[in-house]
């Protein structure tokens, strides 16, 4: 899990709590998701709209490259290839240079994540 410290037993504190108190964990999750007022939901929707717009403004070149790549794959101009690390056929196109949108390295979700984390 991202952002949570893993303890000696391999579980995060949150996972440990949920195992010890399943009724509380379930109730808390249910209440937070379903018992919000319409005002809270609208506030969340507005926050999401603002966040998406800010991301798009910061990442115009990335979004453009991703769109060009996806359209090329959909049209058949480019075909997905297996992961260059493990051969998995379920791949993502990883851009090393967004100014060259069709020049990608094909990576499975695991290796794509590791590449972005700096582990490959």
Overview of the molecule:
This protein is mainly alpha-helical and 120 residues long. It folds into 2 domains: 1-35, no CATH class; 37-116, no CATH class. Helices cover 55% and strands 7% of the residues. It has 5 helices and 2 strands. The protein has helices at 13-20, 22-34, 38-58, 60-75, 109-116, and strands at 92-95, 104-107. It has a two-stranded antiparallel ribbon. It is extended, with a radius of gyration of 20 Å.
Which key features would you list for this structure?
single chain, 120 residues, 2 domains, 55% helix, extended
Count of DSSP H/I helices? 5
Q: Quick one: overall form?
A: extended
State the separation between the terminal residues, measured CA to CA: 20 Å
Q: Kindly name the structural category.
A: mainly alpha
> How many domains in all?
2
Strand arrangement within the widest β-sheet reads 1-2
Helix and strand succession?
A: HHHHEEH
Biggest sheet descriptor: 2 strands, antiparallel
Beta-strand portion reads: 5-15%
The share of residues in helices is 55-70%
Overall mean pLDDT score?
87
Query: Which regions are unreliable across 5 or more consecutive residues at pLDDT < 50?
Result: none
| Total strand segments | 2
List the helices and strands and how they pair.
Blueprint: H1 13-20, H2 22-34, H3 38-58, H4 60-75, E1 92-95, E2 104-107, H5 109-116
Antiparallel strand pairs: 1-2
């Amino acid at each position: 899990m991202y952002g949570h410290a893993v303890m000696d037993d391999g579980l995060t504190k949150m996972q440990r709590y949920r195992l010890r108190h399943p009724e509380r964990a379930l109730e808390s999750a249910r209440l937070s998701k379903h018992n919000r007022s319409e005002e809270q939901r609208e506030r969340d929707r507005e926050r999401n709209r603002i966040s998406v717009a800010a991301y798009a403004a910061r990442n115009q070149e990335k979004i453009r490259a991703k769109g060009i790549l996806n359209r090329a794959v959909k049209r058949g101009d480019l075909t997905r290839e297996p992961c260059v690390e493990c051969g998995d056929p379920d791949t993502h196109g990883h851009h090393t240079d967004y100014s060259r949108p069709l020049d990608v390295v094909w990576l499975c979700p695991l290796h794509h994540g590791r590449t972005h984390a700096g582990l490959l």
